Amino acid sequence: MELDTIAAISTPMGEGAIAIVRLSGDEAIAIADKMFKGVSGKRLNEVASHTIHYGHMIDPRTNEIAEEVMVSVMKGPKTFTKENVVEINCHGGIASVNRVLQLVLSYGARLAEPGEFTKRAFLNGRIDLSQAEAVMDLIRAKTDRAMNVALGQMEGRLSKLIRKLRQEILETLAHVEVNIDYPEYDDVEEMTHQLLLEKGSYVKEEIEKLLRTSHQGKILREGLSTVIVGRPNVGKSSLLNSLVQENKAIVTDIPGTTRDVIEEYVNVRGVPLRLLDTAGIRETEDIVERIGVERSRQVLKEADLILLVLNYSDDFTEEDENLFKAVEGMDVIVIVNKTDLPQKIDMERVQNLSRNHKLVTTSLLEDRGVDELEEAIASLFFEGSIESRDMTYVSNSRHIALLNQALSAMEDALMAVEMGTPIDIVQIDFTRTWELLGEIIGDSVHESLIDQLFSQFCLGK
User: Judging by beta carbons within 10 Å of its beta carbon (0-12, 13-18, 19+), is residue 49 exposed, middle or buried?
Assistant: First the structure.
């Protein structure tokens, strides 16, 4: 299928040193050549592939110089999209890059849709669907660990494993078909229930291995929703500022200063936290503060991690005890703050209530205990296993859902085998597993899903 030539600005809008207009398609070089005048005098369709050329973009209608540029020419199929690609490097001003974009659109290119360059790379067989999704994960990565996971997926680590499992299933299905259609062939090994059990068990174990990494992988991709809770004036906003290393929240001695949920992203030992500082949870007559308290209770229910802050220099109250009850069964780190002040809190009682949680003492005013807190957060979710670079991590929610469905289908198949169900019936669940795994890499996926996935990409990627 021949696709038209697309163009878009591939760098963030705003002032900078350089901005890039990218074209991709059969006519990309010819379109750019209509308005490019290089100092060498060569036409762009005459230059070697993967070379860059200095010159000016000229508006053919007025013969006026539109911009001073460097133009990169890359001829397909050795490009990201496997099509001819031209990248026009302009000065990084909004007016200059828009002027160049309008020129290429006037002379035959079409404005690209969000993610259309990556979509073409997928449609043209340059990458599979899981690798295409990893491109967006790489752009959105908030920590080095998240970036390494995305890079591994872009390199095809997940794809290779999925293809290997699909090939194993395909060979098993082919073996079943030969046994059914040509039972008279003595030289073909009989597909027994025992053999099906062995093949299916192998596939099941490999899917389970992938799913064991999915919790960590999803955290690295999406961030850990972390809520800071506690009574007013225990140091919640100070904790937020300490982790973010910036004064994002107002800190005062007046209880109830924080009236709403404050959200920030922070990197803690390679773990991306979506940090939410909440209004102090207490009974209040103040209407605005009461709304903030209700919002605090709501985000508490949706959190992956709770940082429950107590005041070392204040008595342990009924409100504190109610907070422990509210977070029961959740991943919680208890922080006893303000240890620079005289002790009033009953630490024995706190330790008793924290027996199922990690307990850290801090003095945020004197910057004590923050390292221990960061170590507690990292160890609670990763326990060092994330450092294994040869592991294949699954981080995408779509992939995780499909792997769970594939696991369920294979478990149904193995159960049927153990019950002695005829082999031609068992193969239905094997086929279903094969199809579900294919959806991860895009070998069996609806066009509407492809459109939806790529629409989430940024323009120009």
Answer: middle
SS3 149: helix
- Give pLDDT tens digits for 379-388: 877 654 444 4
Does the pLDDT value for residue 389 go beyond 90? no
Predicted TM-score (pTM) above 0.85: no
- Helix, strand, or coil (residue 86): strand
Which positions ≥6 away from 239 have C-beta within 8 Å? 228, 277, 307, 309, 335, 337, 362, 364
Question: How many beta carbons lie within 10 A of that of residue 115, not counting itself?
Answer: 22
Cα–Cα distance, 179 to 163 (Å, whole number): 24
Sequence-distant (≥ 6) Cβ neighbours of residue 336 within 8 angstroms: 310, 311, 312, 345, 347, 350, 359, 360, 361, 362
CA gap 169, 199 in Å, rounded = 8
Q: In the numeric block, which tokens belong to residue 340?
A: 């620079």
For the domain 222-386, what is the CATH code?
3.40.50.300
Which of 3.10.180.10, 1.10.3720.10, 1.20.120.430, 3.30.230.10 would CATH assign to domain 135-213+393-455?
1.20.120.430
